[in-house]
Write a structure and sequence with these properties.
With 149 residues, the protein is mostly helical. It has seven helices and no strands.
């Protein structure tokens, strides 16, 4: 599949179908590149159990960046260890899919993961007229307070 082929296929797909299209691509690549048989491949198979080590994970990340024309995190395949969770994350990053759509497609993807650093929270929410940002420490304290830690 050419670089534009995958991106075009995903763009043409309905937003809800994009994770499935990408999972199919990932499974095809695993079969073609690693010779993994179809009965071992499924959307929730862990990359680690399929023999993907850190070197190969980096190669896959670079392949996906080229295919999708977007930057991805270096720890991609360790943070999203299955084709299903990886596809949901990539669709969200590459196409701006709403997070809950990605979570529906891959329940083991973590909602707090993002392609870059989170924007600072506002003291009084997004509409804060004074525009005061909370420090990292204050944000952490606020998060920990939600969990009674």
């Amino acid at each position: 599949m050419s670089a534009l082929g995958l991106r075009d296929r995903l763009t043409a797909a309905l937003p809800a179908a994009r994770p499935r299209v990408l999972v199919e691509f990932i499974l095809e690549q695993l079969h073609d590149e690693l010779g993994i048989e179809g009965d071992e491949l499924h959307p929730r198979a862990r990359f680690e159990s399929l023999g993907i080590d850190s070197k190969r994970a980096l190669e896959w990340k670079e392949l996906l960046e080229e295919e999708l024309q977007c930057m991805l995190r270096t720890t991609l395949m360790f943070d999203y260890p299955t084709p299903e969770s990886l596809a949901a994350y990539i669709v969200r990053v590459a196409f701006g899919a709403p997070e809950d759509a990605a979570m529906t497609a891959a329940p083991d993807a973590r909602p707090d993961d993002s392609a870059g650093p989170a924007a600072p929270e506002r003291a009084n929410g997004p509409g804060d007229p004074e525009g005061e940002s909370l420090s990292i420490e204050d944000q952490l304290q606020r998060k920990l307070a939600q969990y009674d830690v």
